[in-house]
Amino acid sequence: MKVEVFSMEDYVYVLDYLPKGRGDVPAFKRKPVVYGIGENQFTFLELIPRHDANFSVGERIYVGKDAGKRRKIEKIKGRVNFEDLTSTAHGELPYVLLDIVHNLEPKYIKFFNEASAISTRFHVLELLPGLGKKMMHEILDERKKKLFTSFKEMQERIDFLRSPDKLISKRIELELTDPLQKYRIFTRPPLDKASHHFR
After folding, report:
1. Model's pTM, two decimal places?
2. Long-range contacts for 29-38 (Cβ within 8 Å, ≥24 apart)?
3. Domains along the sequence of the chain with CATH
4. What is the pLDDT of residues 35-73, one digit of tens each?
């Protein structure tokens, strides 16, 4: 469904920071580690921090190719899947996803303005958890009159539409936590365990 070339994430939001390493790793192998999620393709990443860096959950940090801008990250160790994350990262994920959606609001308003049908009977908007056919038709009718400009405006124009931002973040969360999802609107497919390097 998604036709695009995947590129490296430039910015990542911190999901968890373990300054003493993971407790499920032998003591002699433990090293500081950061788990984060990319803001563009929602790639889960394991990151090696610089020795003098500290992190807060939800913090946005640069991990792109410009080494001079990487002030807190030494290197990207690689991609990981949802099940590889810590329980803390799992718990923080819904809040961080909502922050990303808010920070990139124009991107997701564009989605509501441009989303199309998957087939003659099914529209991509129906993939958003909690959004049924009646609400979908209201969104489509309203955007024909005038394109949406913000989440707040969507709520004002469409009766009974509550928190369109959460509709987006919940869909992203579903795609990230369920590897068997047929349609991926916003995310990359899970990492193939046969390949552990960052692509």
Report:
1. 0.88
2. 33/77, 34/73, 35/80, 35/85, 35/86, 35/89, 36/12, 36/61, 36/63, 37/12, 37/13, 37/93, 37/96, 37/97, 37/100, 38/9, 38/11, 38/12, 38/63
3. 11-86 (2.40.50.140)
4. 999 999 999 999 999 988 999 999 999 999 888 888 999
